[in-house]
Amino acid sequence: MSETVVWRHPKPKGVAGRCIGRTDVAVDPRKAKRLAHRVRALARREGRACEVWTSPLRRGADVGRWLVRWGWMHHVDTRLAELDFGTWDGRPWDGVGAAAVDAWCTDFAGHAPGGGESVSALMARCAGFLREHPGALVVGHGGWINAASRVVRGLPPPMSAAEWPAACGYGVAWRASSSRGAESQ
Predict the structure, then answer these.
(1) What CATH topology corresponds to 6-175?
(2) Which one of 5, 45, 74, 122 has the lowest number of neighbouring Cβ atoms within 10 Å?
(3) Could you tell me where the beta strands, DSSP code E, fall in the chain?
(4) pTM of the full predicted structure?
(5) What residue segments make up the domains of the chain, in order of their start?
């Protein structure tokens, strides 16, 4: 069976310094098309079906829409969305406040930042998707990839923010069976 491959979406426009989870921000159409070409190339190289899964957020779904133009099936699954930061989402990190961020870092696994979703809940979403769709080609989000990496390795939710790595680069692929983390494709 093929392993699941998840590419982080292209870099979104105008998000520097902002907390971005479920905020639906645009990506450059050329970058979405470039990533779609990379997904298609891997599928050809590995003899995979022309089928991709994305979150409903444009930064992933735009890549799926390019693939549809080339005859692919595109599935949208809400479980692939980024962490829900609740009231923090879309705001400048400076506006969130150090005390609120400290409260999250104190209970990184269980605290729902901004009243949104905990990292434990994100990991549960990842586990469900990975169980139901082994071998899928996915365009997702940095936080989702971090969570999926822990799920695949059988690790519990992180107790501290120090156990949560920085997100992989935009357009970088991660293979679900990989314990070495993200890799370029």
Answers:
(1) Rossmann fold (3.40.50)
(2) 45
(3) 5-8, 51-54, 73-76, 137-140, 173-175
(4) 0.93
(5) 6-175
Q: What is the pLDDT of residues 127-155, one digit of tens each?
A: 999 999 999 999 999 999 999 999 999 99
∠ CA 103-105-110, nearest 5°, is: 80
Name 74's bridge partners.
52
Please report, for residues 32, 100, 125, 141, 154, the alpha-carbon distance to residue 65 in angstroms, rounded to integers and kept in the order given: 9, 37, 23, 17, 33
Q: What is the pLDDT of residue 178?
A: 52
Q: How far apart are CA 31 and CA 3, in angstroms?
A: 25
The residue type found at 3 is E
Please answer whether residues 126 and 79 qualify as being in contact, where contact means their C-beta atoms are separated by less than 8 angstroms: yes
User: What does the pLDDT look like over 158-185, one tens digit per residue?
Assistant: 999 999 999 999 999 999 875 444 444 4
Give 147's contacts (C-beta < 8 A, 6+ positions apart). Answer: 83, 119, 122, 123, 125, 126
Q: Do residues 130 and 176 touch, judged by C-beta distance below 8 A?
A: yes
